Structure prediction request, 77 residues.
Amino acid sequence: MSLCHTWHQTPPVRKDQTRTFTRKALNTFARAVAKDEDGATTIEYGLFAALVGAVIVGTVVTLGDNTEKASRKCTTL
Prediction:
């Protein structure tokens, strides 16, 4: 075997080494996600948009009922 051929070969990996690597990779990923606040900001904006939407719907429903009642009064006079 030449030096180039042995250089490209990967050493054998035991199953416990693979599990340890996977566990470390998942822990690193979880820590990165926990530190990232972009997701929390997105959720906050989503909740704020839902609140604004609920207020708009409530206002339209209330004003719509009042407008309909006022319109009926005007037509019956």
